[in-house]
Amino acid sequence: LLLLSCIFQMETTQESYLDLFPLDAIVYLTPDSENVLEDIDPSKVYVLGGLVDESIHKNLTLQRAQEQSLQTARLPIREYMVKTVNTKNYHSETLAINQVFDVLSTYYETQSWPAALKAGVSSGKGYVLPDAVK
Question: What are the SAM-dependent MTase TRM10-type domain coordinates in residue numbering (predicted)?
Answer without folding.
Answer: 1-128
